[in-house]
Specification:
By secondary structure, this protein is α+β, with helices and mostly antiparallel strands. Helix content is 34%, strand content 34%.
């Protein structure tokens, strides 16, 4: 098991993980497979390059036995001392092995090292495995649920954890 940030030229890794995540767990993300699968290679390249070059944002990949098996995004707001975590997903073949917690802890450690005092993320209500993972990592719900996306009956809840 390994967790690391993506380098500029690894746009295909991010694209493949992102599309797999949207296909596997369409109710866990704001965007949809239809929206994301239509993006050009140039768009994917630009997203990864811009994030890799940014000092306060990182795309993360978790690997299981050398294969990309999970992903996440972390962004630091230094004024608010806040780490925002998004796009968390672990491939079904690697679930139940602790990869999600390793990925989450790596992002939280990174945010803490950059001065964040708390982390936030959103989880789809009823996504019990994700809710349990975040609870084990110290996250608690805050505020009221909001719609996942326009036209959806699903709701998401904001979770916050002290770093």
């Amino acid at each position: 098991m390994a967790v690391r940030t993506l380098e500029t030229g690894e746009w295909e890794v991010w694209r493949d993980l992102r599309l797999a995540a949207l296909a596997d767990s369409p109710d866990a993300f704001l965007s949809t497979l239809a929206e994301e699968s239509g993006k050009s290679d140039e768009v994917w390249t630009d997203v990864v390059a811009a994030t890799a070059a940014h000092q306060r944002g990182n795309l993360w990949v978790a690997e299981w036995e050398g294969e990309p098996a999970g992903m996440g995004f972390g962004r630091l707001d230094p004024e608010l001392l806040l780490l925002t975590i998004a796009a968390m997903w672990v491939d079904p073949f690697a679930r139940g092995k602790g990869l999600g917690m390793e990925l989450l802890e790596a992002m939280m450690d990174w945010g803490r090292d950059l001065g964040a005092e708390r982390a936030e993320l959103w989880v789809t209500d009823g996504n019990t495995p994700a809710e349990r993972l975040y609870e084990r990592a110290g996250f608690s719900p805050i505020g009221t649920p909001a719609p996942l996306r326009e036209g959806s009956d699903l709701t998401v809840t904001r979770l916050v954890a002290a770093l």
